[in-house]
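Practice problem: predict the structure.
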Amino acid sequence: MRKIAIIVSVLLLMSLQSFSLPSSKVNNYTPHPPIIIEGNDDFTPENGVIGGNGTKENPYIIEGWEINASGEWHGITIKDTTAYAVIRKCYIHNAGCAILIKNASNIIIQNLITEFNNFGISIIISKNIYVENCYTESIYVDTDENCSIKNCHILHSIQIIESVKSSIINNFIGKGLLIKGLKQEHFFHNILNNTAINGSILYYVNKSNVKVKENAAQIFIIGCKNFEISMNSSNVMVAVEMIYSSNISIINSGFYGKMAWASVFGVNSSNIFISNSKFKNNGCSIFFHAVSNFEIKNSYFAFYESGLVAELSKNGIVRDCTFENGEFGLEFYLCRHIAIKHCNIHDNE
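Answer:
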């Protein structure tokens, strides 16, 4: 246990040393009330603009402000704009969500600190949004195109929902990534050199015949086949995410702590094999959507909200597993040809 604590401390120290961020304690910011910009005409000095004319060559500049958003939901809101703008070197605190970008384009957010907020940065129905060298609680990307997040320290997570062409590069992301969508294109992004609290974030696209035997925090397998995974992970958004993939084996693995979504998350995939693995203290241990031909065997599940949830899936077998001391052991919705054999299921609510 002492060795693990030392390793985690070193990872945290390395992540902090990798970024050159402003500090609210050493920089002088000028107080400013929350900023609300709803349309290009609202880029005015009253709304914190200190220069620029909104062109690509000379963007509007919002810089140097401390925004105490106590009692307000957002510190900075930018909606329904197309003008080029840069938000930089600001300190935003005590908001519900520090920054909201909605139905906007061509916004750069740089060298920002947000803290003591419920959420950090939300980017919704927007395109060409760039976030660089920021320290923030979380980043939420929903229905966006060409969103880039680089060199940031993110305390909780990045969520990418129904978005395309995202770039997530060289970030520390405490609880890691979660990618969700309705179409295949929602899962194909440029994701490289990111780490979470307990290890690296590995992202594979269109790869085959790969063995992963390192203690990565997260593994994303998109459009892949013939993977063998052995890992230990804890307290991230999702440990293994398999999308449009086939012939994936997860063996001799451990998944601990409450994953925000699921320990193992599979969508539109086939021939999934999980064996000799432990799932403990998870929210949802395994979640399958439209997965066919899966087998889960010789595995242990305990202290979960849901042990296994499968929907719109078929041809699955769960055998020689233990599900105990949880809320819901196994849940199947609109599934076909599911077999449960020789399992020990007890003390569930």
